[in-house]
Amino acid sequence: MRSASTTRLAFVSLSALVAIVAVPVPALALGQPAQPPAPVVQECANRQLPPPPVDTSEQPRPGESSPAPLPVPATPAGGERMAECGLVLPGPTPSSPRQLTAASWLVQDMETGEVLAAKDPHARHRPASLIKTLLALVVLDELPPDKIVVASRADAEQECTCVGLVAGGHYEVEVLLRALLMRSGNDVAHALATAVGGVDVAVSKMNALAERLGARDTRAATPSGLDGPGMVTSAYDMSLIFGHAMRQPRYAKAVATRQLMFPGGPGKPDYPVYNDNNLWQSYPGFLGGKTGFTDDARHTYAGAASREGRRLAVVLLRAEQRPSRVSEQAARLLDYGFALAAAGTRPVGTLRQDTPATAGTSAEQQPEVSVAATSAQDPFGTTGWIVTLVVTVLVIVGMITAHRRGLLRRPE
Predict the structure, then answer these.
(1) pTM of the predicted model, to two decimals?
(2) Number of domains in the chain
(3) Which of 47, 308, 315, 381 fits a 20 to 30 Å CA distance from 191?
(4) Residues 353, 29: contact at Cβ < 8 Å?
């Protein structure tokens, strides 16, 4: 009787175990690799939109509406830590420099594409004149350096900062390109945009290039960086774009030009145009960069430097000139980056350009994620099934053991 009872209990328990094991476990199914959990995206300020504008510059033209916000990719470009909101530092490491006013910033190794440190790298802010780098890249692709551009009245009447184009003046593309990047001329930006097909066409080409590079936080609204409906970027994207631009010899030469004799127009003498980047006078090994400002964007900055065989670059967005100038803040970030590189700290992310196969995929086709944190699609998950299986086996073993002990205590 004891043997038969024990056998029946073991058979029933084994049958239950087989039934449990036979239940499909999606993450462990044969031929189906385990799916990673959906990424958790922190609820960060400005994840979708920049801070509200302070003026009317972003109001759409009559009959038009403001563009919808760019979707937030489900997986942050550059690695998991690029989704963090605050300081993103290698640890343990010295703290970041003091008196940095930028809402977002990033330090990169230009040779490897590694992100050495950052602050809120995917927060969306306005680029101001940093967007001229995208226009410059379009010009490099499409216009020969010796092509002559005849300035129009519309070019000459742009809202300044301006270099001083004169309607009817003849200018070589290479001269305009250098003036665009050295002095951030909005009149020059309008002339070059017209030369590549018109302002709307130029903006479309700039956005297409940003998409090919994998800059999913970026949308140009004007060729000059003057604020317009939907204008947005991030420190991550501008670092990606600036790093790509610095690998183009004509761009690198343009931002490294300190003085340029600019044509004065019909009947007028040439005059000097100076580079507006203050680090040329104060930072050893400086390679060049780009400055920007609008009331809505505040101060923006990109710059690169070389030291002991390393080339680093920094981008700052939404910075202020007090308590120290933005160029001085950039210098401190460069020093910090060189110190991290010398110490051999681990990168916190990477600047990754899209491959040709994925570069053509529109932002609207990318999977989106809510700004709030998300959870995995299967609430039970692989871990839950494993734990359940182990517990079930232990319960069955316990039942068999208890039953046998009970039989042993019974009188014959």
Answers:
(1) 0.77
(2) 1
(3) 315
(4) no
